Amino acid sequence: MGKNTSRHVLSILLVVAISVGFIFFQFRNVKWNVVFDVLKNVNLIYIGLACLAMFLYWWLEAVVLQRFGKQADPTLKMGTSFRITMIGQFFNSVTPFASGGQPAQLYLLTRRGIDIGLASSVLLIKFIIYQAMIVATFIFFLIVGFPLLGHTTFEIKYLILIGFVINLGVIVGLVTVAKSERVAAAIVHVLLKPVLLFVKKERREGIRENADSKIASFHEESVRFSGNTRLIWECVFYTTVQLLFYLSIPYFVLLSLEVTDVSLMTTMTYHAFVMKLSSSIPTPGGTGGAEYSFTSFFEMVLSPEKLVMALILWRLITYYSCTIFGAIAMIPFKRKKSKKRLGQNSR
Question: Can you tell me the distance from the alpha carbon of 21 to that of 286, in angstroms, rounded to the nearest whole number?
Fold first, then answer.
């Protein structure tokens, strides 16, 4: 087992340990024989709909990647985009703050022969749209469901605010990097300094010049992408629908448990708050924070026995599925030689 594989396995084991520990501590007084009775009566049709919503979430993300990616590589097929998306989902799941997905996808795009500056701009614009739509949907559900926050603790409200500020800060930072070549160059040069200490002096200038060339390519393509308003708005639409599918998953989970008196809007609002709170927790998959926030919101509408089952089903569908299918997508990932790069195609 390689070093990276061992690290990912440890991350997954940590997530499982935290999740199991939380469930047994939080629900230590629950009647588990009743929980198993709830499990026996789960409606699999609604579980199937929840899984379908999760699949459509992945698929629409792959659609956005393909729409942008084809600008860089006209041969990029939907199947390949979906596979790259799932590998990104895996690395998002096993790294704190979901920080590993973008570098993994960047690596896979460059393996296709796409220039690293161009690939970076593809992923950056895609990520900015995703983060912007998260903020927009959260603001919408915050307005619609603000009264629901009155039943939560101060800690919940504080963590939700932190998650919102983090997302907003990320968007501002990324837009600045995309628009300003000077800022992007400054960041790269700062990051290069410790690396260059281990490089021979005669090679350092060449590395700096190569980095500057890639930054120029990155900035040029980022500006060009941002100027394609039709593509931007198309991907905004796909991303919005993607998030709505994701936010609807708890609704189908509740229906599978024969909970029919909680509206779709209420469950989506709760899930938006859970999603925002989880993003502020520095553990893989927001573990601990995700379970805590889900419990804090949905305990207002569920009995303890149905709540623990809903939590387990929700976590399996929204988190562990990404880990499992993302891992499958990596076996194997064949290298494909690039045909043309966008930089060449656009000239």
Answer: 15
Return d(Cα 329, Cα 320) in angstroms, integer: 14
Q: Where are the domains of the chain?
A: 3-337
Contacts of 85 (CB under 8 A, 6+ apart): 58, 61, 62, 65, 105
Q: Do 66 and 86 touch, CB atoms closer than 8 A?
A: no
Rounded alpha-carbon distances, angstroms, from residue 1 to 9, 11, 104, 298: 10, 15, 19, 40
- Position 152 scores a pLDDT of 61
Pair 345, 69: CB distance under 8 Å: no
- Report how far apart, in Å, the C-alpha atoms of 214 and of each of 74, 117, 181, 192, 220 are: 21, 5, 11, 13, 10
Q: How far apart are CA 180 and CA 178, in angstroms?
A: 6
Tokens, residue 240: 């919005």
Find the mean pLDDT for residues 105-121.
Answer: 87
Q: Per the confidence metrics, is the pTM higher than 0.70?
A: yes
The separation between the first and the last C-alpha atoms of the chain, rounded to the nearest angstrom, is: 45
Distance CA 182, CA 241 (A): 35
**Long-range contact list for 32-36, CB < 8 A, 24+ apart?**
34/305, 35/305, 35/308, 35/309
Mean residue pLDDT across the chain: 84
